[in-house]
Amino acid sequence: MNGGTASAEAASGWALEVQAVDRTFQQAGRKLEILRQASLSLSSGELVALVGPSGAGKSTLLHIAGLLEKPDGGEVLVGGVACGKLADGDRTALRRKSIGFVYQYHHLLPEFSALENLVVPQMIAGLPRRQARGRARELLGVVGLEEREDHRPGRLSGGEQQRVAIARALANAPSILLADEPTGNLDPHTADSVFELLVQLVRGVGLGALIATHNMELAARMDRVLRLEEGHVIPA
């Protein structure tokens, strides 16, 4: 990293910044403006809820913030690094290093055990298998699943599957966690326990977490609530 980039990161103070992002889709010959000058900032150790009606663009905003999708306009900064003009390989490397994702549906690899689901992303990032297995075991212990490491997803409950998904999101020690309805597919009791685990991990590791949710009770327990309305991000 060059001196200019390091200075930008130090001056920013934000784990994540989304600056005046636009995103438009074409549908049946019509332009759908999903995001209009959408902006937000996220600091380390902070939990921020992103709320809004279905179809408002929460998932699109998370995909852009997570460098999975490019905006039509605006900029995304990760740790002070502007990502708009990065080459695809550099964007991928930054995403693997800095950003963890948790989805409503766990998307675990069904043919692999819980342990292997945590080992794979670490090996893709370049960690030797032995070290990856050691960290995977440590993370499964953190989420209370050390005795389930050999179980495939089909043998785990919904809450256990989502705990593995959270551990997988943390496998590469990211600085940012993006979660899209992480408790939306769980019963209320399980959702509450998974959310508490998420809070504990974010606080303990010092991540910045942006969590899209329809659950206003959970949203109210976070540090801030942002609403996505008519393409704009506004304080709720």
Descriptive account of the structure:
- The protein has helices spanning about 5-10, 60-65, 90-100, 115-125, 130-140, 160-170, 190-205, 215-220, and strands spanning about 15-25, 30-40, 45-50, 75-80, 80, 100-105, 175-180, 210, 225-230, 230-235.
- It has 8 helices and 10 strands.
- With about 240 residues, it is of the alpha/beta class.
- It has a 6-stranded mixed β-sheet with strand order 6-7-8-3-9-10. A 4-stranded antiparallel β-sheet has the order 2-1-4-5.
- Mean pLDDT is about 90; it is low at about 1-10.
- It is globular, with a radius of gyration of 18 Å.
- The N and C termini lie far apart (about 35 Å).
Give a short summary of the structure.
Helix 4 (114-124) packs across helix 5, helix 5 packs across helix 6 and helix 6 runs parallel beside helix 7 (188-205). The chain has 8 helices and 10 strands. The chain has 236 residues and is an alpha/beta fold.
